[in-house]
Amino acid sequence: MTEKAKTTATIRVDLQLIADMVEPKSRVLDIGCGEGILLDYLNGFKQADGRGIELSMAGVRQAVAQGLSVVQGDADTDLKDYPPGAFDYVILSQTLQATREPRQVLQQMLRIGRRAIVSFPNFGFWRVRLSLLRHGRMPVTETLTYQWHDTPNIHLCTIRDFQLLCAELGIVIERAISLDSLGRPRFDARGRMANWLGEQAVFLLRRA
After folding, report:
1. What topology does CATH give the domain 3-122+154-207?
2. SS3 labels along the chain
3. How many angstroms separate the CA atoms of 181 and 92, rounded?
4. CA distance 144 to 156
5. 95 bridge partner residues
6. What angle do CA 105, 32, 36 make, to 5 degrees?
7. Contact at 8 Å (CB) between 116 and 106?
8. Phi/psi zone of residue 132: left (φ > 0), alpha (ψ -120 to 50 degrees), beta?
């Protein structure tokens, strides 16, 4: 456990929700782990054997400086290098919409992991729909913070879109939770209103 983990047992609410889905002492790969906040928490409080991939070299350096096992890598190209079943959980938090090939990334996650945990902003949220209707411009919200011309989000989707993709790929949804802008759980994301009322979503997945 790093010094930061020793001094705090709290992380962002949505990351806590993801951490709660991970069984203790699991092998975990955190894709797009940033400076390693979730990974550090899982190692310290879940005794996980945690590894990370991060595209930003600055993020890699920060994570490694904390003693975390993080390498520079790209979810679109580097997951194929991991052997099947190498991890118990593969996590992709708020990154799916920034991948070039989200379909292939999901398939690779469930090839190398027994389960996958995916979170993303919901483009079907009612405020996003209303903003687009009223202003005729790509919305900027607390979870979609970029302007259209500088956003890394190239494959925005709705909760319903994601469910349909999972069905197409034969992926089983074990848990699905919609969240508000602060990351607080609201509804089962498989419910009829989640696509309207959930600003974000977290899905726990496994192979059929």
Report:
1. Rossmann fold (3.40.50)
2. CCHHHHHCCCCCHHHHHHHHCCCCCCEEEEECCCCCHHHHHHHHHCCCEEEEEECCHHHHHHHHHCCCCEEECCHHHHHHHCCCCCEEEEEEECCHHHCCCHHHHHHHHHHHEEEEEEEEEECCCHHHHHHHHHHCCCCCCCCCCCCCCCCCCCCCECHHHHHHHHHHHCEEEEEEEEECCCCCEEEECCCCCHHHHCCEEEEEEEEC
3. 18
4. 10
5. none
6. 145
7. yes
8. alpha
How much is the CA Rg of the chain, to the nearest whole Å?
Answer: 17
CA-wise closest residue to 28 among 80, 64, 82? 82
* pLDDT tens digits along 115-132: 999 999 998 888 888 888
Taking CA atoms, 34 is separated from 55, 66, 91, 123, in Å, by 8, 12, 12, 23
Hey, where are the domains in the chain? 3-122+154-207
Q: How far apart are CA 171 and CA 206, in angstroms?
A: 6
Structure tokens at 17: 């929700």
The pLDDT value given to residue 5? 46
Q: Does pTM surpass 0.85? A: yes
